[in-house]
Amino acid sequence: MTAATAKTARLVNVAIIGGGLMGREIAAAIQRWPALIDHPVRPRLTAVCDINPAALDWFDEIDTVVLKTTDYHELLADEGIDVVYVAVRHDLHEQIYGDVIRAGKSLLAEKPFGIDGDAAQAVLAAIAEHPQSFVRCSSEMPFFPGAQLAIDYIRSGALGTIVEARNSFLHSSDLDVNKPVNWKRQNEFCGDAGVLNDLGMHTWHVPLRLGWAPESVYGVLQNIVTERPGPDGALVPCDTWDNAVLHSWSRHDGVLFPLTTETKRIDPGQKNTWEFEALGLDGGVRFSTKNPKLVEVFTVRDIPGGGREQIWQQIDAGSQSVWPTVTGPNFESGFSDTILQMWAAFLAEREGLLGERFGTVTPQEAALTHNIYAAAIRSHTTRTAVDLPADDLPVVTL
Ligand SMILES: NC(=O)c1ccc[n+]([C@@H]2O[C@H](COP(=O)([O-])OP(=O)(O)OC[C@H]3O[C@@H](n4cnc5c(N)ncnc54)[C@H](O)[C@@H]3O)[C@@H](O)[C@H]2O)c1
């Protein structure tokens, strides 16, 4: 942000409900806002709510925070607050998201946007009744510069006739069978879609935005670790799906193609790997956060002194993503940069100033992911592919 824009940028007061892992991450990203060049908005974190008073202590680091509370209604009653970010357990989404919307505040919700499809539909209904509330859902991985390069490559038409595509989110956070159970490992709090609720938005944001809503889904789901130590060390049920691979049929430029999405909590060797690959007859592109500078593009070329060859070419992606920053263009980008970029996109879109740039997940896209997960679970149970009605396909926004 330049000195001139800093003076004219509109001040937006932000509050956080849920000061856990993600609440702190977002608070830190807002502190880095001056890294953005000429952003129309200047967010200021003014309020935080967590039912655990100890979680609020960390926010003493941030001197703009004037309200700390254990009751989010207090924060919603504050007329000075414009935007609320909510990062709580999935079973709490429907109530809290609805309350934020009904209070007339804008909302950046967290995935999976309600514990199930009914909860997501209830949030959509609240939005319909309160259209002044601008609502989007969090999904930051596509804001890696390499992911943006891959998206732009596909939008350019460079694939030609598509062959196949894959988007994966791979962890091994649950490899240790002695890791205690927590809310993300219990259907009651995480939802029946398990790992899909936890990681699925990461694998559907880009496909849905590219217009690749699936027409049918075949789900392969695994609950690998069925019990984990509870609070007193005794084993308790760990009933969520750990890994889910969805084989779908989607359409690109009218051509049906296999789209595979993978969400895994147990993929030995992976920590937080987001991978995207799309192959066509004319070109191909792939990117993985495992090597976050590298984007590979495929081509067939005449080699000087040789014949016609298939080539994967390597590009270093640099630091620039959706919104320009003061960071040198050749420097590296990381997870916290993607959070900043996601917020830059969210607040610019709220102002109507995002233009053609890549945006955060829309409520309709988020709700559609629940239909996809439900189809995947039914498919897994029946061992047959499940069609998704065309009515479920969102309008393509690119
Ligand atoms: N975008 C991402 O990359 C990403 C990563 C992790 C988690 N998430 C999502 O963020 C959300 C929260 O996950 P997390 O890992 O931050 O969880 P967490 O358990 O670390 O934090 C949740 C916090 O919410 C608080 N809380 C519970 N009930 C509350 C209430 N009624 N009012 C206020 N605070 C309350 C808890 O005390 C806790 O501090 C989930 O929806 C999860 O799927 C997103």
TrEMBL record:
Residues 151-245 form the GFO/IDH/MocA-like oxidoreductase domain. SUPFAM superfamilies: Glyceraldehyde-3-phosphate dehydrogenase-like, C-terminal domain (SSF55347), NAD(P)-binding Rossmann-fold domains (SSF51735). This is Putative dehydrogenase. The keyword Ion transport does not apply. InterPro entries: Gfo/Idh/MocA-like_OxRdtase_N, Gfo/Idh/MocA_oxidrdct_glycsds, GFO_IDH_MocA-like_dom, NAD(P)-bd_dom_sf. GO terms for molecular function: nucleotide binding; oxidoreductase activity. Keywords: NAD, Oxidoreductase. Residues 12-131 form the Gfo/Idh/MocA-like oxidoreductase N-terminal domain.
